Amino acid sequence: MSTQQDVAEARQAADALAAAVERLRASHQGTLDVRRLAEDVRRVRADLDLLADPAQPALTDPARPPGRGPEYDPREFVDGSYEGTTPGRP
User: What is the pTM of this model?
Assistant: First the structure.
C-alpha cells in the first residue's frame, strides 16, 4: 500500500471519529473531555494533511514556534522556565 492510500484510509477513520465526537458533543455539551477529543481530531487531520503533502514544511524554522516574533530567543525555555517562572516555585 502506498503512503497516499494509507493517508486516505486514515482520513476515513478520522472522519468517522470526528462524526462520533460530534455526536458526543451534542450529548455532553461544554465538557472538557469532549473539547479535548475535538481538538485531538483536529490535530490528527492536520497531521494527515502534512503526510499527504510532504513538500509542505510544517514550520519554516523549527526553533521558532508559529506566532513568535523575531525577538524570540529559543534559549528562553532551555532551563525549564517559562516567562520568568521556575517549575516548583509558587
Answer: 0.56
**Does residue 69 lie within any of the structural domains?**
no
64 has a pLDDT exceeding 60:
no
The number of domains in the chain is 1
Residue 19 has pLDDT above 80, yes or no: yes
DSSP letter assigned to residue 54:
T
Mean pLDDT of the chain: 76
57-63: long-range contacts at Cβ-Cβ below 8 A with a sequence spacing of 24 or more? Answer: none
Contact criterion met (CB below 8 Å) for 57 and 34: no
Measured CA to CA, the distance from residue 38 to residue 55 in angstroms comes to 27
Quote the domain boundaries for residue 13.
3-58
Cα–Cα distance between 30 and 28 in angstroms, integer? 6
Amino acid at 45: R
Give domain status of residue 64, yes or no. Answer: no
